[in-house]
Amino acid sequence: MRTQAEIAQIRYGLGLSPHVRSPTVPNDMLDRLTRFDADAVRFPIPLFDAAHPTLLEQRLMRRERSAAGQSGDPIAIAEVQERYQAQRKARRDAEWLHFRTNLARGAWGEDAFRERLARFWGDHFTVASRVHESSHLVAPYIETAIRPNMTGLFADLLWAAVTHPMMIGYLDQGRSYGPNSVLGLRRGLGLNENLARELLELHTLGIDGSYDQDDVRELAELLTGLTYRPDRGLYFDAGRAEPGSETVLGRTYMAVADMSVLRAAVDDIAAHPDTAFHIARKLVVHFISDEPDTALVAALAARFAETGGDLMAVYDALLSNAAAWEPLAMKVKQPMGFVTSTFRALGTDVERFFDARHTHIKNGIYVPMQTMGQEWEHPISPEGWPEEAEAWVTPQGMAGRINWAMTAPERWVDELPDPREFVVAALGNGADAELRFAAHAAESVRDGVGIVLASAAFQRR
């Protein structure tokens, strides 16, 4: 039976490691969240506005290319094209560096609960790039909107996420115009309900929440002034805002030509009882079981409501409940978690990881994760990655996991560990007698290590 320390590192962290120690008791896990984010400094990802090439830099490049083309000057065209190609390369290099860095934070970071929360909330507020220009900006979005706000009030986290340029672009808010607004009437444009719908259905109340299509439409009309441009940033555009008042979830908001009314509506939605239940249930499902304990969900929802959505208080309610420490591992690791925990268990050298060639990272990690069913930063919908085991335990997915388990270790460590010792290092008391015997009886060290990594005990948390 797993100890509490092992559960802390596997269920609420990213796996056991012979070299990296994460907090193992609730008070230490919570205390870490209040301290300096050392792993973000050790493995840096730039904030959104500092992630080059920025959206503004790329917009200016498009203008330069257009002007050079219109000039017909072959020297000017060649010069701009050279800088354009350099910009494209910088974008691709940044995207791959962010992939490495995200993985490194989990594999070699000492604050695994923080990393798990960053991944959870990044998935809860899913965005993906719809255009090449923003392909390297998903990680900086999480660094800017999610990571600094996931230990404060949920309302602040919600506002930071739904008003971020990546969310506005992902959910087509830039195409939403009030049907009766100045610009809507002039251009014959209308509403796009994507942001309003996902804000209610996914981010707050949940799909079974107490809202209807009228609430979606009224909220969409309320949000029409929310606008982003690379050269201006986030702002309220009165020209596209639907005039008049809007009623959302029984509350009426008067038209005001600034962000204040939008923030008031978002705060009210964040404080709705259905939001408390939805967030509580998602946390329990993510960390503990696809079939969540109703009493535990109720306890988290109550703490959310009592504290006005204080997320630290909600995490405390989770970690201080005995139901959160049941020894049975019921969750299947997602591919990113599986790969991360493999690196932790093997004690892979971090410098070797960062020194590895791009093709080694792509073909040895990124592509195998795709085979397992998870293409990093490319979820199939705004719902994010699925939680249920059935989504990951598929013939192709399991084949990918087994192949990774049998082939990856010798690519990343010079000398494979003794399987008899590795089964304990990787699983602690979670390894049953049958698995221990299989590790001991393996025909080779390679097979023994692979058997441990491919086992159900290692695949679950």
Task: Explain what you see.
With 461 residues, the chain is mostly helical. The protein folds into 4 domains: 4-166, no CATH class; 171-270, no CATH class; 273-325; 335-459, no CATH class. The chain contains 25 helices and 4 strands. It has helices spanning 4-10, 26-33, 38-42, 55-71, 74-108, 112-124, 138-146, 154-162, 165-170, 182-187, 194-204, 213-222, 260-270, 273-287, 294-306, 311-319, 335-346, 350-355, 358-372, 395-407, 409-412, 419-427, 433-441, 445-454, 456-459; strands at 226-229, 233-236, 246-248, 251-253. Strands 1-2 form a two-stranded antiparallel ribbon.
Q: Count the helices. How many?
A: 25
Total domain count = 4
Radius of gyration: 24 Å
Unreliable segments of 5+ consecutive residues? none
Cα end-to-end separation: 13 Å
> Which bin fits the share of residues in helices?
55-70%
How can the largest sheet be summarized? 2 strands, antiparallel
Structural class: mainly alpha
What is the average of the pLDDT values?
Answer: 96
